[in-house]
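Fresh eyes needed here. Kindly weigh in on this sequence plus structure tokens:
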Amino acid sequence: MQIREFVKSSFRIALAMFLACVGLIVVVTAYYLAIEAIAKRQAAPFESVREWKSDRKSSLGLEVHVKTKMVSGKLLGSIKVSGYPGYLSHPKNADGQLFFQFLDQDGFTLTTKRMKISEFTTVVDDKDTNAGMSAQFEDDFSLDIYKRFSRMQLGWNLDITAFAKDLPATTTSIVNLDHCAPGLSKAERLKRLAQFGTVRETGMNEFKAAEHRLTFLPDGILIGCN
């Protein structure tokens, strides 16, 4: 009799513990489903395409149009470059890059997407003449950072000084003192930046004059220029 009562008591305790565990699992699952639903609802607006443009016809002879959106923790981007100056296909620029810098509303850089010229697909017109470039990318990215995107600026490390003939004639004076040219020291870049106006330090290792900007790593390596 005592054994039977002990078994019944143990069974009731086990059942109570089981039901408590099931209840806890239900509560935790409901909590995480609610959090996930809220996160999806907050992310939904950013799945729509946002567009960014940079007109660098005067300094590079090209114009850039970028589309971005966030989907499932991925930053998706589509880049269209209009214009194809001859320097883009020169061997000196085989490893040259375009830098797509995304800034917050105060002008601080949130992230920089680097794209080698070799990663682009050349676009030709109906006369089979090079007319531009295109590329797409997909990166793991934080939605919280993406929400702070306010504007985009274009930087580059291309050698354009030897190809001024490919650019509009009005840009010769800029090309001759190109602050984005490769192989320059930080001091020389800042000196050339000053040709556009008073140089101001707008962030950590970030300098601006008029609409032109330089961004360096702490060791002086250039990571952004426009």
User: Anything to note?
Assistant: Residues 2-45 form one domain. Residues 113 and 151 are 14 Å apart (CA to CA). Helices lie at 2-43, 143-146, 172-176, 186-193.
